[in-house]
TrEMBL record:
Organism (species): Streptomyces murayamaensis
Domain of life: Bacteria
Region feature Disordered, mapped onto this chain: 255-274
Lineage: Bacteria, Bacillati, Actinomycetota, Actinomycetes, Kitasatosporales
SMART domains: ADSL_C (SM00998)
Protein name stated in the entry: Adenylosuccinate lyase
Span of domain Adenylosuccinate lyase C-terminal: 350-421
InterPro entries linked: AdenyloSucc_lyase_C (IPR019468), Fumarase/histidase_N (IPR024083), Fumarate_lyase_CS (IPR020557), Fumarate_lyase_fam (IPR000362), Fumarate_lyase_N (IPR022761), L-Aspartase-like (IPR008948), Pur_lyase (IPR004769)
Length: 428
């Protein structure tokens, strides 16, 4: 996690101090459950509640001597607990009972932030899609002019992609919001399963049904895959807006502040830097997704190969996904749209974008398909070679472009509009 791509709410979840606070909460909850069973004195639990959360600095100081973070945390925590009560801390638990249950709690909270950012992005995309539903723009396939569509239609495609990611993220949140307090190798040999049930219920977590000492890492892989797919959809938005901001196109433009400077050497530059940044972050997320898959396979009941990886990829991936979705919403919300440039783009190829409509009209008039196609293609090729308007070449070959306008291609657009309005009306 670096500050440049980490928003404060996410930073708070993954700070060392917040993590140790969650560890303390899990220890207290476990001791409360043990007290209900008569295995830990109530006075000891009260002493645990009064104790301060150890600082990262103190834990690190002890860790230099012990080389074990959980033991160092417990030692630091117990410094503020009377000896007669401290001996009941962590009773029957193993390190990853604490670590993974806390991790499930924090991952759920972090995923909630990503989901909220994605919901806002979807909302903004829908709003701007409706705003520009009738703003005609040339559709491009293979980077080449195809036929007219609307800018709102483009944005609607992105809105539905983000909506699918929200569904995936919610499923992934459920997958990672689990804990386990089952002891070494997950057999509950030294701790009653009711302790786990109590702790996880208080934290609003599910329970790993067959623990191996740790929570299964396919859960975390599912989450990072879902974040990476959202990132890829944001990248698709960013890529399209980058292409539409090229000088020779300039159909949209990112919002600029008064402080904006695009180049150290060329004062005129207005670069699509936000879109480019979003594209680059998607590449990071794909890398994290691959690494998360590598963490699924552990030796026997557990090993430690996943731990160093998770310290990096889990907070980083969620931070990047949260930042990326938030910035994408800002980009779309404040995007400048130039309808007149879009209309001019349709006219750029001298009427060629109407070729499919001309073909359809010929077919409707009873012309044999191959003959009709060859005639329209011949006229199109002549326009490309001579620069004459497509309508003129058609008339010279005995055809008429008629009163074709871009709006003709949107005659059945209403069915998509209804779907978009349903998306707008979702109650999240």
């Amino acid at each position: 996690m670096i500050p440049r791509y980490t928003l404060p709410a996410m930073a708070d979840i993954f700070s060392d101090q917040a993590r140790y606070a969650t560890w303390v909460r899990v220890e207290i909850l476990a001791s409360e459950a043990q007290a209900r069973l008569g295995r830990v004195p109530e006075d000891a639990v009260e002493d645990m509640r009064r104790a301060k959360v150890p600082t990262p600095e103190r834990v690190q100081e002890i860790e230099r001597e012990r080389d074990h973070e959980v033991l160092s945390f417990l030692a630091a925590y117990c410094e503020d607990i009377p000896d007669e009560s401290a001996r009941w801390v962590h009773l029957g638990m193993t390190s990853y009972d604490l670590v993974d249950t806390s991790l499930g709690y924090n991952l759920a909270r972090a995923t909630d932030l990503v989901i909220a950012a994605a919901v806002e992005l979807r909302k903004v995309l829908v709003e701007r899609a409706l705003e520009h539903w009738e703003t005609v723009i040339v559709g491009r396939t293979h980077g080449v002019h195809a036929e007219p569509t609307s800018f709102g239609h483009k944005l609607a495609q992105f809105a539905f992609a983000v909506d699918r990611s929200i569904t995936r993220l919610r499923a992934a949140r459920k997958a990672v919001a689990v804990g386990t307090i089952s002891g070494s190798v997950g057999t509950y040999a030294l701790i009653d399963p009711s302790v786990e049930a109590y702790v996880c219920e208080e934290l609003d977590l599910g329970v790993e049904p067959a623990p191996s000492q740790v929570v299964a890492r396919d859960r975390h892989a599912q989450l990072i895959q879902a974040v990476a797919v959202l990132g890829a959809s944001v990248e698709q938005i960013a890529l399209e807006l980058r292409l539409l901001q090229r000088t020779e196109v300039r159909e949209v433009e990112e919002q600029r502040t008064s402080a904006y400077q695009g180049s150290s050497a060329m004062p005129h530059k207005r670069n699509p830097t936000t879109s480019e940044r979003l594209t680059g972050l998607a590449r990071l997320l794909r890398g994290y997704a691959t690494t998360a898959l590598e963490n699924v396979a552990l030796w026997h009941e557990r090993d430690l190969a996943h731990q160093s990886v998770e310290r990096v990829i889990l907070p980083d991936a969620l931070s990047v996904g949260h930042f990326q979705a938030t910035m994408a919403a800002d980009l779309v919300r404040n995007l400048k749209v130039f309808p007149e440039r879009m209309r001019a783009g349709i006219d750029q190829t001298d009427g060629l974008v109407f070729s499919s409509a001309v073909l359809a009209d010929l077919l409707a008039d009873g012309v044999e398909r191959e003959k009709a196609y060859r005639a329209v293609q011949s006229a199109a090729n002549r326009t490309i070679a001579t620069g004459e308007h497509f309508g003129d070449t058609l008339r010279q070959e005995g055809m008429d472009i008629g009163q074709l306008r871009p709006e003709r291609f949107l005659v059945n657009h209403g069915v998509i509009l209804k779907r978009l309005e349903q998306l707008r009306d979702l109650d999240d």
